[in-house]
Amino acid sequence: MKKRDFLYLKDLSLPEHDALYARAVQFKAERRQGATHATLRGKTLACVFEKSSTRTRLSFEAAMVQLGGHAITLNAGDSQIARGEPVEDTARVTSSYVDAIMYRTFGDDRLATFARHSRVPVINGLSDGAHPVQLLADLMTVRERLGGPLSGRVVAWVGDGSSNMARSWVEAAGLFGFELRVAAPEGYRPPADEVKAAGGRVHVLSSPKEAVSGADVVTTDVWTSMGQEKESAARLKAFQGFCLDGALFSAAAPSAIVLHCLPAHRGEEISADVIDHPRSAIFDEAENRMHAQKALLETLLLG
Ligand code: CP
Ligand code: NVA
Q: What is the mean pLDDT of residues 269-293?
């Protein structure tokens, strides 16, 4: 069987995305009833982190254990990665021990090199250019909260349009056929080629209010992503006026939900009252990481 990577959303077909969603919903319901699974018995996942994590680490480790398998976490700082071992060698060696690897790294070129040198499936656990496993959970949350197909929905992104999260939303809009309005200051917009590839589904705007007006889903992310810490003062200045607060959220559709991948900075990119709003789906979204990733692991490991 040829190994299958999941580096971007497009690495699964639309029918596979639908099947993954259905399986994730089933996992969620069964977990509520206390059901147990053993579909990945004897399988091992390595989780390799070159950036910090709470949700991604815990949700992948728990997913593997709850499916009867194992997970091993390797953090760059306490491994040879931080001492400069080439990524090619890390990929070759790690993939000789395990059945799949989740990899969180910086540049997408590094992710591609790692995947090329791994002989087992590689899952992108966040890179500078994408966060596809987060989008699996986000899209699941939209479908379970709002019902109906994703196509035809209007999603508003407010804030850093150049971030990994925004770029994965751009990819999702093109794949699933919903309208994405990105409100971002100049210099922080999604790459033009990625907007173009989304086939007219993505509208880049300057006004948060215009983006949010009547939207079904409103979402944002931190203004300074991991690896950009030196830019944080400049970013704080550039994003003034782009906070997702209660007044802005009230411009969305009356049934609109709010998403944030977390971790969040309350009072910076999003206000505390919006995180804790009755129509916030943020903590469901975080829980759904595990259900969606169980379905992804089965897809890649069992076919
Ligand atoms: N949303 C997300 O990926 O969170 P962590 O950085 O905690 O893994
Ligand atoms: N854009 C953020 C997402 C964290 C889950 C980052 O890359 O730091």
A: 98
pLDDT of 303 above 90: no
Tokens of 120: 């087992």
- The owner of tokens 């399986």 is 23
Residue 221 is among the residues annotated as catalytic for this protein: yes
Q: Indicate which ligand has the atom closest to the C-alpha of 289.
A: 1
Q: Which ligand is nearest to the CA of 235?
A: 2
14 Cβ partners below 8 Å, 6+ apart?
Answer: 175, 176
- Is 55 tagged catalytic? no
Question: Domains in the chain: how many in total?
Answer: 2
Instruction: Indicate if 75 and 144 belong to the same structural domain.
Output: no
Q: Quick check: is 207 in a domain? A: yes
Is residue 2 predicted with pLDDT exceeding 90?
Answer: no
Catalytic residue among 261, 277, 291, 293: 261
Residue located nearest, by CA, to atom 1 of ligand 2? 225
- Average pLDDT of 179-197? 98
4: in domain:
no
Atom from ligand 2 closest to the CA of residue 221 = 1
> Is beta strand 154-158 parallel, antiparallel or unpaired with respect to 179-183?
parallel
Listed in order, strand segments (DSSP E) in 82-196 are 100-104, 122-124, 154-158, 179-183
* Residue 208: DSSP 8-state: H
CATH number at residue 81: 3.40.50.1370
111 & 30 share domain:
yes
Atom in ligand 1 nearest the alpha carbon of residue 261: 1
| Within a domain: 2 | no
Q: Give the active site residue among 143, 289, 291, 293.
A: 289
Residue 66: give the domain boundaries.
Answer: 9-131+288-302
Exactly one of 221, 235, 243, 293 is catalytic; name it: 221
122 and 140 in one domain? Answer: no
Pocket of ligand 2 contains residue 226 by CB under 6 Å: yes
CB neighbours of 13 closer than 8 A, spacing ≥ 6? none
261: annotated active-site residue:
yes
The tens digit of pLDDT for each residue in 36-56 reads 899 999 999 999 999 999 999
Mean confidence (pLDDT) of the chain: 98
